[in-house]
Amino acid sequence: ARAWFEQHDAQRYDLIGNIRFAFGFIKTPEDKWFCSEAIGAALGIPEPWRLSPNGLAAILQVIGVTTSGKDV
């Protein structure tokens, strides 16, 4: 995961990504990353642009990365 973030260090945060979860028709820019999308990509999750923060938390709970029951 660290190597992924080092490779993408110059890319910016996808602020518009917040709106994408309410309006799915907004295209995801290739040079910006939303928080859950970046973590999903770093972990090798396919199509990480589909992940909301809660969706990522649910996946991590299912695979046993977190058991707190709280968002990560």
Explain how this protein is built:
The chain is 39% helix and 6% strand. The protein has 72 residues and is mainly α. The chain has a two-stranded parallel sheet. The longest helix has 10 residues, at 53-62. It starts with a helix and ends in a 10-residue tail after the last helix.
Average pLDDT over all residues: 79
Low-confidence blocks of residues = none
Report strand %.
Answer: 5-15%
Number of helices: 4
Shape: flat
Strand order of the biggest β-sheet:
1-2
Rg value? 12 Å
Cα distance, first to last residue?
16 Å
Structural class: mainly alpha
Q: Can you count the beta strands?
A: 2
Q: Tell me the series of helices and strands, N- to C-terminal.
A: HEHEHH
**Helix proportion:** 25-40%
The biggest beta sheet reads: 2 strands, parallel
Oligomer: single chain
Outline the secondary-structure elements.
Blueprint: H1 2-7, E1 12-13, H2 17-20, E2 32-33, H3 35-42, H4 53-62
Parallel strand pairs: 1-2
Keywords:
mainly alpha; 72 residues
Could you write a compact summary of the structure shown?
It is built from 4 helices and 2 strands.
